[in-house]
Protein: FHA domain-containing protein
Organism: Uabimicrobium amorphum
Amino acid sequence: MASFKLAVRFSGKLVETLEFDKDQVTIGRAPDCDVVVDNLGVSRVHVQIERTGDFYTLRDLKSNNGTFVRGEKIAKYNLNHSDEFFLGKHSITFLKGEEDTEDEWLDSSPNTEVIQGGGQQGRDIQGMTMSMDAKELALMQIKKKANLAAYLTITTDTGFRKQFPITKTATFFGTNSDCEFPLEGWFINKRHVVLLREDSGFRIIHLGNKKPPKINGQEVDDHKLKHSDVIEVENIRATFNIGSP
């Protein structure tokens, strides 16, 4: 499969160009993202690029301030060479490996799933800047530290229990070998579910198009986790716990 590049800009000025040859690339403020965007207007894990064969999909991971393509706030977008997407004042240009010329812009029709709130409102959010005084920043840091400790208690079919601390910004369930919780089955995607560690708590998101996870027996696509929630993903059953094991 061909590699691809991401050209990262801040206020129109090129910051860096990164090259990848992998099926998933995460972009956000967290230091363990593949592309780190150091801006408070960007969520810890803001957006993900997924490669399937020769096709690339941009997927917003329920970010606070949204991801924008051509002024529209998107949930999912099929990327073409030279497409540009925005995260606050940062923009990122997608460049397919076999078409290296960054100056070339393709005039192709977008294949976009649009969220309400795009248009002029979207453009206003896209260009916004965040400002906060020292007191607000200190309170945010205190809240962040208070909510980031959590772990899963996993129960196997034989009754064996194991505790798994959640230390990464994004913990994945799926068939990919790099997933923290490997799964098998026809109805499981490469990265099927992600457990996100956010500033305000933890969230589980269904990334695939098959067999969503269950929380407390109910199928969900996006769920803000609470203490003692029971998570079921294929053959894994785990209890979510706030605090340290």
